[in-house]
Amino acid sequence: MRDFSTPFKTIGAKTTGAAGGALLAAMIATAPAHAANPLEMNFWLSGPKYEGRVAPCEAAIPTIVSRFQDKESTFWNSSLTITGVANVREIAFRSWQSDNIPRRFCTGSVMVSDGKVRTLNYSIIEDGGFAGYDQGVEFCVVGLDRNWAFNPACRAAKP
Q1: Which one of 20, 95, 121, 136 is most buried, by most CB atoms within 10 A?
Q2: Which CATH number fits domain 57-157: 1.10.10, 3.10.450, 2.30.30, 2.40.10?
Q3: Which residue spans within the chain are E strands per DSSP?
Q4: What range does the record give for the signal peptide (predicted)?
């Protein structure tokens, strides 16, 4: 003869285990938080030390030219390239609060291989490279922001 009470015993044990786990989690979550002790404060918790050492605007141009060509050919199946750059100038440096990551905002004009002159907006970010190593560059060419990452008209790439 079949025992129909076995599944109910299993469900009861699972429910009791889940309730016990929830109770334990609630007790841990309500425990008071304590400040870091001196050893913890001096061991790998020094925080960022941004010194504002950001390269000048002209230093990012080779990176932008390379990444633009790579982006256009890889993601948009386009043969567009930047063939010339002019009127590069800084428009802001650390334009946000003083304790934010230092950025140098720049703008300029670029000649694209389709024969059109377009505006280039970009920023150079201290410790903004891969894994926080080296400087990072974010850029937008007005009219070629196809995924609208800096839309409208690359305004999000400005300060």
Answers
A1: 121
A2: 3.10.450
A3: 82-93, 103-112, 117-125, 136-141
A4: 1-35
Eight-state DSSP code of residue 152: S
Other beta carbons less than 10 A from residue 146's beta carbon: 12
CA distance 132 to 88: 26
Residue 106 near residue 137 (C-beta atoms within 8 A) = no
Read off the pTM.
0.67
Distance of CA 65 to the CA centre of its chain: 20
The Cα 134–Cα 80 span in angstroms is: 28
Give the pair of three-digit tokens for residue 137.
């560059």
Distance CA 106, CA 108 (A): 7
Write out pLDDT tens, residues 32-71: 767 666 666 655 555 566 777 889 999 999 999 999 999 9
* Two tokens, residue 44: 């790998």
HEC secondary structure over 13-38: HHHHHHHHHHHHHHHHHCCCCCCCCH
